[in-house]
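User: Sequence recovery, please. Input:
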């Protein structure tokens, strides 16, 4: 069965995860990893593989904003990566599948004032419809162009996986809606309210050391910790379970323009109820007796 939404033909990416079954060994070896916000880890990688790296691919922002540049005041880690790529002739690619149409309608690259060589967009681009886009600098994109008669080109476009017209129509209407209704601004404002609410309720419940919300406001995160202070999936499961009992589905946080004060009030009541159970489990030293199902597991894991 082919999953058209997320296909493992992106084997360079899948090969970087614990789920490597079916991925050619050469692909795994050719995919190198470095640490976000740690420019030295990328420098070391380039030094270890001189003239061997074709491109550097990363998300503009992960759980938090990119760190400040170590070289230029007022710039970010992304600019340091870009300079390093340019110095060594490496294509600099930003994955905007998540950040695009959320950080800014022009992407996080606009928010952080940086221009990659190539970038990708999808997901919120058409509000869930199957549409994606690759954009980039002309000197790279034209390698796949048909405008130069007699020139050999890269094969970049196939209608085998082309979007249907309904998806393209959804993209047009999504952009119109975002612009008309100030959706991006709403996501930032609502996200900050939600972060503040979750942290305030955790403090009121006496579990602020065991539950924390944070991140970039337009794309918040929350962390759950056990009695030992370590990140704990059992307590994350318990929190999700108790929130669901109170009509809030929140295995992670994905903000929508439809989220408003009514939803925030509902979330507040659910937090109060969930944190009461969470506090009991913390005091008991375990989620045993409180969980009603299996513990949440990471998506990318080698053993079930």
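Assistant: Recovered sequence (304 residues):
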């Amino acid at each position: 069965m082919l999953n058209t939404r997320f296909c493992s033909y992106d084997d360079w990416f899948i090969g970087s995860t614990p789920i490597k079954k079916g991925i050619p060994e050469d692909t795994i070896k050719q995919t190198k990893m470095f640490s976000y916000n740690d420019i030295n880890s990328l420098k070391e990688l380039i030094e270890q593989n001189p003239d061997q790296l074709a491109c550097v691919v990363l998300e503009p922002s992960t759980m938090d904003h990119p760190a400040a540049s170590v070289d230029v005041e007022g710039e970010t880690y992304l600019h340091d990566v870009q300079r390093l790529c340019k110095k060594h002739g490496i294509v600099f690619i930003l994955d905007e599948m998540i950040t695009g149409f959320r950080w800014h309608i022009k992407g996080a690259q606009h928010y952080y004032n940086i221009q990659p060589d190539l970038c990708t967009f999808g997901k919120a681009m058409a509000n869930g419809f199957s549409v994606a886009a690759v954009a980039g600098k002309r000197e790279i994109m034209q390698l796949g162009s048909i405008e130069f008669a007699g020139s050999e080109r890269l094969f970049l476009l196939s209608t085998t996986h082309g979007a249907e017209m309904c998806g393209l129509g959804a993209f047009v209407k999504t952009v119109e809606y975002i612009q008309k209704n100030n959706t991006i601004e709403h996501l930032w404002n609502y996200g900050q309210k939600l972060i503040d609410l979750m942290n305030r309720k955790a403090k009121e419940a006496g579990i602020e050391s065991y539950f924390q919300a944070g991140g970039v406001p337009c794309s918040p995160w929350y962390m759950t910790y056990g009695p030992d202070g370590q990140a704990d999936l059992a307590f994350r499961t318990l929190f999700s379970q108790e929130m669901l009992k109170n009509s809030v589905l929140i295995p992670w946080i994905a903000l929508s323009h439809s989220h408003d004060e009514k939803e925030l009030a509902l979330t507040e009541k659910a937090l109060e109820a969930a944190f009461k159970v969470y506090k009991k489990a913390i005091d008991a030293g375990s989620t045993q007796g409180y969980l009603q199902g299996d513990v949440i597991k990471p998506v990318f894991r080698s053993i079930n």
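The longest strand covers residues 91-96.
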